[in-house]
Amino acid sequence: MLYSIIETLKKNQLSITDSRKKILEMFVKTKGALAHADIEHQSGTEFDRVTIYRTLQTFVEKGIIHTIPTADNSVRYALCKEECSEGHHHDDHVHFMCDDCGTTYCLDKISVPHLNLPNGFTASQTDVVVSGKCGKCN
Amino acid sequence: MLYSIIETLKKNQLSITDSRKKILEMFVKTKGALAHADIEHQSGTEFDRVTIYRTLQTFVEKGIIHTIPTADNSVRYALCKEECSEGHHHDDHVHFMCDDCGTTYCLDKISVPHLNLPNGFTASQTDVVVSGKCGKCN
DNA sequence: GTAACTGCAAAATATTTGCATCCTT
DNA sequence: AAGGATGCAAATATTTTGCAGTTAC
Fold it and tell me: Which of A56, A98, A117 should we substitute to test contact with B (largest number of B Cβ atoms within 10 Å)?
């Protein structure tokens, strides 16, 4: 499946700027999760810290990326699948964090199992966070 | 089941101090999750911000409490069940965060389903984070 | 008495906001 | 040309560290 960066930005009514193209490109290439610091390091001094904050925030609002709940409460982001739209994330997938190398994977192929919540509770989103050792570190 | 605060502290070779007793008491009474800010507000000026940070860190290290992965990446803690010991958490339970009132519940009774990870991946811990509306807000 | 714990001050880090300038459309 | 996006400076917020004084055992 091809992911068009320009397409995605246009579809979300965002103007095409260098920082947006490059940051979105990082996510597409990584296929994993990125933290603010990762982006900052990878991009060198190319753009401002603040621009990265604002770009990430915009992408989250537009449903292009989403935040990942992590056990260590570091803030990480990953690409949303196509079904996501503004304000309506559908990211009920499984995230895996490697204890050794720290890489975060989105395991799209594993579906989130159904849970029986207590009476009166309704779920809008379910995230599963698995930690352990990934294929490379095992 | 009775939870003895003094017992817990002794068992973990921690000296019995006011801040530790009071902070641990908050967790026992809440039966839910607490953030650093919650503790700070509930305790007024009784103890220092830094003491709270250090106490929480100590409790996590000893396996008395654990951090909860949250969708919004705020840092929250909850009591561990008895099986937890230093460095070995067994908190494969389900956490529920209410979108309306913000309360975090630990749904101990719901077990975490087994997942088939990709080849070479091994899991040491699985967290499930459900968000939606809780019984009170529905 | 000694080791561990706390409070205060300050450093380090992370995030947000305002505003002037520049770029996309 | 106009509105949105960026960079810079600075304000806030969050977390960590060092050290001296205090407390638990």
Answer: A117
